[in-house]
Amino acid sequence: MGAYAVGPHQIFGGPDWVYSDRYDIMAKADPSINDDDVFMAMLQLLLADRFKLAIHRETKTIPAYVLEVDKKGPKLEKAEGGDSVTNTSTGNNGQVNIVLKNTDMDSFAEILARKMDFPVVNNTELKGVFNFTLHWTPDSSARSSDEATDDVSIFTALPEQLGLRLRSAKAPVQVLVIDHVERPSEN
């Protein structure tokens, strides 16, 4: 998902083990590589080499969330530009925290899709890059009655914190289709 900037529901095809088996991949990149695009291209080459992974991209109309500006308007800080920074973490109570600097809405939709049960399509029409923080507690997180009452769903957090909203729809989404993959051999 990270190497190709897609969410879990944007991958099609391949054998069942692709969706259940887990592997630790340890690789060392040149420390001077600070460009995410270069790093992800290197990771794609590693996956192709080690797993004989062959994929293609296509567009499918599938269930998705459409990211839009809320009726009250956006609450986003326009950024000056520079390197994009993403910090995503999950707290002990299951709360998801996303801090973004110099990030455009297409990139935000990709990041959000990795935390959602459907792909996220950017339809905000907001241009430029922004700095913002978003936090919410996924519905699947277990909550005890003595936890703080600041638990908020993504559907409440987006309008309140960013002036955006998610709407369920069938939408054209770019997906990855696995053409070929093999289990790696032992090292």
Q: Tally of extended strands?
A: 8
Taking all Cα atoms into account, the compactness measure Rg is 18 Å
Strand order of the largest sheet: 1-8-2-6
How far apart are the first and last residues' alpha carbons, in Å? 23 Å
Strand content: 25-35%
Proportion in helices: 10-25%
General form: globular
Characterize the main sheet: 4 strands, mixed
Number of spatially distinct domains? 1
SSE string, helices as H and strands as E = EHHEEEEHEEHE
User: Overall mean pLDDT score?
Assistant: 87
Secondary structure class reads alpha/beta
Which stretches are poorly predicted, pLDDT < 50 over at least 5 residues? 141-146
Please, how many helices? 4
In short:
The protein is of the alpha/beta class and 187 residues long. Helix content is 20%, strand content 33%. The protein starts with 10 loop residues before the first strand and ends in a 7-residue tail after the last strand.
Written overview of the protein:
- The structure is a single chain.
- The protein is of the alpha/beta class and 187 residues long.
- It has one domain (8-180).
- It has four helices and eight strands, in the order E-H-H-E-E-E-E-H-E-E-H-E.
- The strands form two sheets. Strands 1-8-2-6 form a four-stranded mixed beta sheet. A four-stranded antiparallel beta sheet has the order 3-7-5-4.
- It is globular.
- The model is unreliable at 141-146 (pLDDT under 50).
